[in-house]
Amino acid sequence: xxxxxxPGDGIGPEITAEAVRVLKALDLKFEMEEAxxxxxxxxxxGHPLPEATLKLAKEADAVLFGAVGDFxxxxxxxxxxxxxxxxxxxxxLNLFANFRPAMVYPELVHASTLKPEVVAGLDILIIRxxxxxxxxxxPRGIHTLAxxxxxxxxxxxxxxxxxxxxxxxxxxxxxxxxxxxxxxxKANVLDTMQLWREVVTAVGKEYPEVELTHQYVDNAAMQLLxxxxxxDVIVTxxxxxxxxxxxxxxxxxxxxxxxxxxxxxxxxxxxxxxxxSAPDIAGKNIANPLATILSAAMMLRYSFGLGEPADRIxxxxxxxxxxxxxxxxxxxxxxxxxxxxxxxxxxxAAL
Length: 351
Ligand code: NAD
Description:
Elements: E1 2-8, H1 12-25, E2 31-34, H2 39-45, H3 51-59, E3 62-67, H4 84-92, E4 97-103, H5 116-119, E5 123-129, E6 141-144, E7 150-153, H6 160-176, E8 180-185, H7 191-204, E9 211-216, H8 217-226, E10 233-236, H9 238-252, E11 259-263, E12 269-273, H10 290-302, H11 307-322, H12 340-350
Parallel strand pairs: 1-2, 1-3, 3-12, 5-10, 8-9, 8-10
Antiparallel strand pairs: 4-5, 4-11, 6-7, 11-12
């Protein structure tokens, strides 16, 4: 099992170091190799996704990714900015299904801005299509109309096969959980989304055990705040998923706790925390490494089929939280916060 480790920028190196320590402690036969990406890629090799880094990622069985982003490089042309590395990896590795779990740990219920009874016990999974939709559809652009006014336009576009493959991912994920799948679309207004609903419904016939429901995206956005526990798995397109998954992550209130996975058809995956490079706290040993450690657990489960060690990591995180160990971002007022390394130590001890 070969893991390509891409720490990236800001807090990336600190948090991936802790996840790597946890993986090593499992005593499984991993080969791990590190490479620069994002701002680190640009500074050392002149490109946010250097050729050697992409090659290493392609040759590996999974990628563990920290975060990219470096404000001092924001003046570079768009194609050289650190964030382009993620888009490049998604495209090159055909990572079309983005898994974003949002769960609320009992000890962290207070971190949510919603009432405890609304979020306590929340455990939902949003699957967002990642390589199609209005973000990639052509034609797009800004042109000048006959009256001299400028007009911007983008194209929402999904082929049946693109919808079908992500629908299968959604149903299969629901089969492993509580067997409920909610497909989110805007079929009442958009033709693309009418096709989305038809194809998802047809795929659903192959999964008679899964209860399939449909919601319009505006209602789904509302339901996520009103009664988020009604959901088990949500499957949706790229743009709606982008927005809803960020909304769902904030139900938990703790950006430093949430992992994610982006998978292709062969279960090859890129695993990363949902947060960015947090330049404001980089290098201070205060970042929360748990989202990255939990991303490593997702990697074991989804790319390597190693459910047992994945369960062990997740159980260790729960034990650490139950013991009251907290980094600053999840500490209640009056609690003493530990550093990044100390949180890693606590997870290792619990493991
Ligand atoms: P951010 O997620 O990096 O940070 C937002 C806030 O959350 C900051 O106050 C930060 O200190 C805090 N935070 C984030 N992760 C934390 C952690 N593990 N522990 C404790 N606190 C944490 O978002 P931002 O500030 O908007 O963006 C910073 C850079 O990251 C930008 O360059 C942006 O483009 C990039 N970014 C990268 C990714 C990615 O690599 N996938 C995702 C989002 C943003």
